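re the bet — no i am not wrong, look at it urself. input seq straight from the record:
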Amino acid sequence: MALDPEQSATGRRRVLVAPVTVTPSKPLTPSHLKGLLWADAMSRATAAVADVTFRYSPTSYHRTEQTLGFWEFVDRTQGDTDYAELSAEQVGELYVRYRAAGERPSAEALRPYADAVEQGWVHPSSARVLALWAEEYARLGLRDPGLERHQPPRFGLDEMVERLCAAGLGIDQRSAGGPVYLDATRYGLPLRRIVTSDGRPNYLACALRELLPLAPDFDEVVLLYDRELDPDYQLLERVFTACGTAVRRVPIGRVPVDGRILSARHGGWQGHTAGALLDAAEPGHSPSALRLGMRLYFIAGLGPGEKQSFRKDLLHHAMGRAERLLDGAAARDGGSAGPLAEAVRRHRRDHLYVDPYRLTSSLLGRGRPAPDPELLTAVYL
C-alpha cells in the first residue's frame, strides 16, 4: 500500500536518509561527488516537510575486508610513513597498488585492526583522507555528517546476526565453523553470505549492523546507492520491510570519464578529483555559485543515469548558470514566494522524501521565474 505523505497522526513524519558510504582510502571522484550531492540535497529539502536523520558513518564500515586489508597492506609495505603530509591522491595511489596486488590477508592478520576499530581507532592513512574530505565538504557546502567522529553502529555483529535469524532471515552456521547467510530466498532473492567462516563481515553485514536497529524508528528509510549494488540493496529493502518499515531504494548511476566507468580502485581519476575540480573552479566563481553550480551539474545535468560522461565545459557552464540564478534571486521582487515546504512538496510522489533531481531541474529552463532565495539557502548553499 502506498504511503500517504500527508497523513500524520502525531505531527511531522520521520525519514532516515542513508546513502552508501565511500571507503576512506582514495580521493573523491565525480561518481562520489554525484552521490554525495544528491544525498545532501535530498536530506536538506526533505527536512522542510519531515524530520530527517542523515546517517553516514564511515566508522560502521571500517570492519570490511576492503578497508582492513588496505590498512594491513600499507603497514606491511610502507613501514613508518607519515600520512599527515600526503594528499588524498597519494593515499589513493597506494590503494590502487593494494587492489592491483590481489592479495587477501588472513583473518588472523586483520584481527588486531578489527578489534581496534571497535574501540574507535582509525588508521592514519584513512584519518588523513577523512580530514581532507572534511575540508572539501566545507568548500562544497555539504553538511559534515561526522566524518572524523567515532560513530559505531548500535548493534554488535553477534546481536545483528541474532536479530536477523529471529526474523527468519538469517542462517548462522558459525557454531559448526561455517559462515552467516542472509536468507531471503522465500522472496525469490538469492542466498547471500554476509560473514565468512573465519568471521569477516562484508559491506552488507556492516550496513545491517548500522541500519537494522535504526529503521524501526522511522516512517520511511531512503537508501541511496550505486546501481551496481542493487542486488544487495534489494536484500536490505526486504529485511527492513519484513520489520515493518517503508523503504525507498534510490539507485544512482556512476559518472563515466571519457566514456568509461571505472572503479576508483583502478585509478584513472587523476585530474578529476573533488580537490582538482574545486581548485579549478574557485578562482572564477563566488563560493555560492560554486556550490549551486556543482549541484546543478551533478544532480540536474547528469541526472540519475550514467549515460553522460563528465565534461568540465558543462560544469563550467553550470557555474555561470548558478551566478545568474543567484543574481536573479537577489533581485527578486517580494522575496520568498511562500513557505519552503510548499516549494518542495510538489517534488514528492507517493514517498516522503523530496526528489533532488525533480527539484533541481525545476530551477532550470528558459522563461522560469528567478528561484526563491530561501530555497537556494536551505537546500543548495
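see?? The mean pLDDT is 92. told u. also The chain has 14 helices and seven strands. so pay up
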